[in-house]
Amino acid sequence: METHLSFNDLMALEKQQRTNLVNSTGGFKSVSLIGTVDKSGNTNLAIFSSIVHIGASPPLIAFIVRPDSVDRHTLSNILETGCYTINHLNETIYRKGHQTSARYPGEISEFAAVGLTAAYKDDFLAPFVKESYVQLGMQFRERVDLSINGTILIIGQIDHLYFPENCLCDDAFLDLEKANTITCSGLDSYHSTRRLERLSYAKPDKELVSIPIKYRE
Amino acid sequence: METHLSFNDLMALEKQQRTNLVNSTGGFKSVSLIGTVDKSGNTNLAIFSSIVHIGASPPLIAFIVRPDSVDRHTLSNILETGCYTINHLNETIYRKGHQTSARYPGEISEFAAVGLTAAYKDDFLAPFVKESYVQLGMQFRERVDLSINGTILIIGQIDHLYFPENCLCDDAFLDLEKANTITCSGLDSYHSTRRLERLSYAKPDKELVSIPIKYRE
């Protein structure tokens, strides 16, 4: 049987129920840890599931920040230093990643609190998560305030990209499944993946074929 | 071994390689079919992997459109009619979903071309995908032009939500895995999921516990 809920039905739900349900409706989400540092060197780490691809040339990625949440240090640090890191969550660290969403006192770094290691690479100011296998060093490019509900879209450019060498395919597709990257749904559900297949570029009147996974030598 | 690519390395890649790689860096993505109709009743269906949660109250979801792509009918139809549908991709229809990205002539509906069924429900103008199990009827709320690369963020409000009754948990978490929703990575890789666990709300000095999946009676 199919359940139907209207806008009014959704608005009539108890708040936490609405949050759970609406956060599930968008599908499986990209989930990463965003690492930042303030001018005094205090590090911050926060989990985000609102990461979205903006463009490849230049390489741009965006995410949504809620200014009234525990994300606030992420936002203020990015505006202060102009940089941040995006670190894919994997099976070995998702519990620690989830724990970064706790409201720790301002003087406590989530790195220390949850037991993840801040790593500094290639003179990039913001800390990477050592235990993450796919890491992006991001340069802040633009802040777009969404007046509709007070959230903020932060657009950044990939200045550094790190990944396990053996996960790159010959057409530069990066095998995230091999890199152990996971996905999430709702507010709190974490999932590993199993590839169905890669599909060829779609053209009218041409049958789709599976693209075999061929790693670079 | 770890591979490191700088911004300049990424920009020096051949275009299709850069597109493949950069589209992989954001992690696993929400992937859905967006259904629209123009004022004359011509339907359009297009696959999008740039869907992002904006807020729960009111329930808002956004996605990114590239105006120079085959997505153009999606955008013009949404601006013309003020509504559209978001239909989760599942294991039974992802090949047909991928095929909607082919550049069909303007007079051909992707519904007919790929063999999916347009369904009309609750007097909503835009067509749903009958073969999709999680369907959203969206009201267009706001267009945000991202001058940084000419893409457009389309923000919509959930006016109708449909899902299989047996996938709803007692706290209103929707079990997308049970609903057969899938995820994607890069431009062309489709993946089913396997739940690791749901985790409790994080608090400092409190151990995380697994939330058991309990469906509503």
What does this structure look like?
Two copies of one chain form a homodimer. In chain A, strand 5 (51-56) and strand 6 (59-65) form a beta hairpin. Chain A has five helices and 14 strands. A seven-stranded antiparallel β-sheet of chain A has the order 4-3-7-10-11-6-5, covered by helices on one side. Chain A has a four-stranded antiparallel β-sheet with strand order 2-12-13-14, with no helix packed on it. Chain A has 217 residues and is an alpha+beta fold. Chains A and B meet through strand 1, helix 1, helix 2, strand 2 and strand 5 of A and strand 1, helix 1, helix 2, strand 2 and strand 5 of B.
Tell me the β content of chain A. Answer: 35-45%
What characteristic shape of chain A results from the CA principal axes?
globular
Radius of gyration of chain A: 19 Å
Oligomer state equals homodimer
The mean pLDDT of chain A is 96
Structural class of chain A: alpha+beta
Number of helices of chain A: 5
Task: Summarize the SSE layout with pairings.
Two copies of one chain form a homodimer.
Chain A: E1 2-6, H1 7-12, H2 15-25, E2 29-30, E3 32-37, E4 43-48, E5 51-56, E6 59-65, H3 72-81, E7 83-88, H4 94-99, H5 110-114, E8 118-119, E9 128-129, E10 135-146, E11 151-164, E12 183-185, E13 189-199, E14 210-211
Antiparallel strand pairs in A: 2-12, 3-4, 3-7, 5-6, 6-11, 7-10, 8-9, 10-11, 12-13, 13-14
